[in-house]
Amino acid sequence: xxxxxxxxxxxxxxxxxxxxxxxxxxxxxxxxxxxxxxxxxxxxxxxxxxxxxxxxxxxxxxxxxxxxxxxxxxxxxxxxxxxxxxxxxxxxxxxxxxxxxxxxxxxxxxxxxxxxxxxxxxxxxxxxxxxxxxxxxxxxxxxxxxxxxxxxxxxxxxxxxxxxxxxxxxxxxxxxxxxxxxxxxxxxxxxxxxxxxxxxxxxxxxxxxxxxxxxxxxxxxxxxxxxxxxxxxxxxxxxxxxxxxxxxxxxxxxxxxxxxxxxxxxxxxxxxxxxxxxxxxxxxxxxxxxxxxxxxxxxxxxxxxxxxxxxxxxxxxxxxxxxxxxxxxxxxxxxxxxxxxxxxxxxxxxxxxxxxxxxxxxxxxxxxxxxxxxxxxxxxxxxxxxxxxxxxxxxxxxxxxxxxxxxxxxxxxxxxxxxxxxxxxxxxxxxxxxxxxxxxxxxxxxxxxxxxx
Length: 453
Prior knowledge:
It is a single chain. The chain is 76% helix and 3% strand. It is built from 20 helices and 2 strands. It has helices at 20-30, 32-55, 59-86, 89-108, 113-141, 147-171, 179-185, 188-198, 205-210, 214-224, 227-241, 258-273, 277-288, 294-318, 324-347, 353-365, 368-378, 385-414, 418-436, 445-451; strands at residues 5-11, 14-18. The protein has a two-stranded antiparallel sheet. A hairpin with a 2-residue loop joins β1 and β2 (14-18). α4 (89-108) packs antiparallel against α8 (188-198), α5 packs across α18 and α10 packs across α11. The chain starts with a strand and ends with a helix.
């Protein structure tokens, strides 16, 4: 075990030391689920021009092929909730990795439109499991003072997955009609690496204590921090679980828990309906509308991935300094304004629109994208965290399906005016965040149970 690194953070007036390298290591391994999330999310943008020709997709099937990932993700979240509460967070991550690997090959070797959609639906199951379990696991093993940054690592790996996938898609653009098969099939490699890495992960100490395995939980906590940290963490977790037996999904609708659950659902739905994922998934279609060639369309996805990465790193630096709520307000307000400018520029076929699309990506990447996941991983009580997180993330994927399924049809009928809809949604989201979201920065998961009531 690496030597513990002293940290001057105060918890209840005490100083503890933490094994920061160990925390970073297990956080990055868990966050490989985020990388594969980013891969499956982004690969469709580069492959879609090829899929349209290969399977003769109209606007309806284009939207359904893209959105089928979200339908699978909804199932994945439900499965993850049950698996993670009954068997632990680690087995859920291993199952997600295996699904990623198999579905990548299935998409690559699809022989028909329906076979491809079925395979992408299965990939969505892995995405849904990882999108729920990776940030939840990281939140449960991270000390309060760095939890925001650690959970944001998951978002960092998502954007790395998006960027690397866009680069690979661009490199494969002239590889023939079957280039899309390579685009999907290459996801097998990181999926196998994720599976191997997940075998090394310890189980979540909070899940271990909930399962009555206090000795194992103490051992895991001992690898994370010193004796003072272990003793306080064990005490806090035990207190939060006091009187809790078996939890059910019905428990999340109890009066004490429901306010936090509604906030979590609201944030999850807003993160998707704010509209930015239309740019991620349909950048080639948007740029085609202003006359860009196919090469230029795919090149723009690379720029989008690069901006996404830079501003995600900025978010990681700010989330535990500026706070969650200020970043969310900046994101909602900034997107509402930027979308109006995008409508104007698309309307006059201005190539300058690319700068404002990139600005929208940057605003989202430093605010709504990572911070929503941070908040979802923080705001639910220990005793129902699995069930409540599952409901919030299911809501997120349902909203994503609505967004990407409807965009091709909306864009076909309304063209650039589609973005007015997302501008209004962002304005409403700004009001929701202002009135309903409470700051969670610097508080332990157990302290937040009182804050969110």
